[in-house]
Amino acid sequence: MDNPLFAAIQERIQAAGAISFCEFMALALYAPQWGYYNRPQIQIGRRGDFLTSSSLTRDFAELLTDAFVQMWHALDCPQRFTLLEMGAGEGEFADGVLGYSQVTYPDFFAALEYRIQEQSPSLRERQQQRLARWGDRLRWQGSETAAEPISGCIFSNEVVDAFPVHRLQWQGGNWQEIYVTLDSQGAFQEVLSPLKDNRIHEYFATVGIDPSQQGYGEGYRTEVNLHLIPWLRDLSQRLERGFVLTIDYGYPARQYYHPARCEGTLQCYYRHRCHANPYRFVGEQDITAHVDITALIRYGEQFGLETLYVTRQSLFLMALGLGDRLLAQQQRNGNLRQALNRHQSLHQLIDPLGLGGFYVVLQGKQATLELPQLREADQGLG
Q: Does the global pTM surpass 0.85?
């Protein structure tokens, strides 16, 4: 079967001789029309290649709405509270927040302005269909609207892990960057090239890692997410006052770049199966890398975002009342199958080996938030 994206990347490599893995990943995920996130066939959730908390259960959106309401109160209940969701998937989260707040928090709902920034035309079209009933209560925007100030919260769930990354290999006591070229049969082939981008050295200094002191073995591989830096700068510039709430899977820098993690964190997802070969199913699979949580914190602080809480999703959701929902579900009579499915979904949200192990990073700009249940909680960087 012809793969137009495969052919387009081959053509790009033939013109350049070789491209960085970062460019390869960007094309595989975001090339117009054929990239994984821009293809019409993309599916997120049980029918797709991976599950997210939003696609698993509406409880996730409702619990996070409780947090957004607390943020609104922390900002002294402004007449307009903007919630900007970065990458909205199939629109389940936005639908859940709007529906739950309309019924449970009518004053907050009256102040809520919901915005979505979505780069995928296919997903945006589906979101607009799902969310049509909300009319002008929400709108879509592009990155070009960055100059418009926001008072409220910028939220993302499993967005940063899909940013294209630079892949590095420790060779001869120095970093080499992994590039992609073509072998004699026209298949993708990796080659090494001396590191040319000084921003990578600056990155390691920022997160407190001295590669020369780590004791890396020959051939050690890892990733660096430089796209995270302008993304955070842009969020801070947009945010006049309020919060940035980022949920994703990752590690603190000292765990991420530990010598024992010798193959890095790159993962591919194809029909709910996980593997480590980004050169298969090009344009038909998700490619991700874990997030360096220390980088989120350090660069956020450089751009004026104060770190308020760093914790795990399980602790964060329990602090927002997930335990009460579990108890109420056990005591409620009704359809047994529905009850069991919801009970299982709630447990998946806090499973420490799955979604519950995700990191939650809450940052503030000219704003703070008191969550007493998390005061004594492990801040998740151990």
A: yes
